[in-house]
Write a structure and sequence with these properties.
Blueprint (H helix, E strand, L loop, with lengths): L8 H13 L5 E5 L2 E5 L3 E4 L1 H9 L10 H13 L3 E5 L4 E5 L2 H18 L33 H8 L5 H13 L4 H13 L5 H13 L5 H21 L11 H13 L8 H17 L3
Antiparallel strand pairs: 1-2, 3-5, 4-5
Length: 287
Amino acid sequence: MNNPVWQDPKLLKLWMLCLLEASHKEHEQLVGKQIIKLEPGQFITGRFSLAESYNYGMKKNEKVNERTLWRWLKGLENDDFLTIKSETKYSVVTINNWNLYQHDVQLNDQQVSNKCPANVQQVSTNNNGNKGNNDNNLNTTTTTELENPIALFEKILCRLSPIQSHSLMKWVDEFEGKSEIVNEAITIADNKNKRYFGFVEFLLKEWANNNLGSLDRIRAYEQEKFNKTKSNTNFNRKPIRKEKTPSWFEEEQQKVSKIKPVGDVESPEEKRARLERIQQKYQKSGS
């Protein structure tokens, strides 16, 4: 609490986001066509993806732009909170002293797990690994339909708070006990690299508002939404603008070509003088 970061709520939120984004286990992540190997305490980000995660759910006037956030992140690096290794299309952020942050958590998890029945010990597992962004086809989504939603969330996304765990199970009740629907939202969040509770809840609210009560209807809805977004992206591409040469310039060029003998090249001085005459002529005529 004596640290300056604690005194700045916005900077503290960024630091907490970094801790939540960091992987808890060694894994590989696909970025474009390149496979990146991440160690515990590392995560991949960029200016825009960092801003998207930080500003999610915030009011427009409260959002922080990507340049400011990146400057804050560099400030955390200067203060030895983390290390940033930037590549052409992405940056790998490493949390310094990651093992020190995890020591007490691992001890507490172990103590809790030893007191729990074997069938619920898997809830304490936290992989936090990312499978990459696979937006090209939503049908690649795979879901372990019978797995406990809390266990699935913590295995492939991040650790849940007690309040978030309670909310997740309330969504199971909302969909009449169909845990496979909640698991579908978790898996889509993983595929889209939006590994936080807010995005999962956003999907569940959207499905509930549209009265989507079955897995087949939800998958059809998401596929239709994806196809519509892709179609709009292609439609909104602006055509390349072609500049048209003024008619008066073409007329003058035709006159010059008739006057000049074939093979006679106009000197730079002659060209400059001719263009000045043309300009003066059309300025006088109001053209």
